[in-house]
Design a protein that fits this description.
By secondary structure, the chain is α+β, with helices and mostly antiparallel strands. Helices cover 38% and strands 18% of the residues. It has five helices and four strands; from the N terminus they run E-H-E-H-H-E-H-E-H.
Length: 144
């Protein structure tokens, strides 16, 4: 019997092509029901406010100058749909705004989540227990 697993794929997708990302997601989606992946992705710059676009542009220039150009950016709603299309039953998106509210509210030093970085959690197959459903709600999809 195949057992589900958990994949943490943080800080990776921005350096990969869209095809490589979707290929990897298809591979993970082919694993046992209940398998989960949590990955970080960057939102399209055109969907960000002017200040966030400036921050992303500076960061992209900095990392590209060091030989690590950012290659992939996504529209959150479109990515969610594509992740479901490759075989994930449960998909949640944790936006920078969610992180700021949950983890950075009230900070006096101005530290905030990076403005284009999202975390997406996806689970293969159906969620069978109420405990698993509760855990999957920690990263909930919110339309942008």
């Amino acid at each position: 019997m195949e057992e589900p697993g958990v994949f943490s794929w943080l800080g990776v997708t921005v350096y990969l092509t869209e095809d490589a990302i979707l290929s990897t997601l298809r591979d993970v989606a082919s694993l046992a029901a209940g398998t989960e992946i949590i990955f970080q992705y960057e939102e399209l710059e055109s969907q960000l406010d002017a200040e966030s676009q400036r921050i992303v542009a500076v960061t992209k220039t900095f990392v590209a100058a060091r030989g690590e150009p950012w290659l992939s950016f996504f529209d959150p709603a479109s990515l969610r749909a594509r992740v479901q299309e490759v075989g994930f039953a449960e998909v949640g998106d944790f936006r920078p705004e969610d992180a700021n509210t949950r983890y950075f509210a009230g900070r006096r030093d101005g530290l905030r989540a990076f403005p284009s970085s999202h975390l997406m959690k996806a689970q293969v197959g159906s969620v069978s227990s109420s405990e698993e459903r509760t855990q999957s709600r920690h990263l909930t999809h919110r339309s942008t």
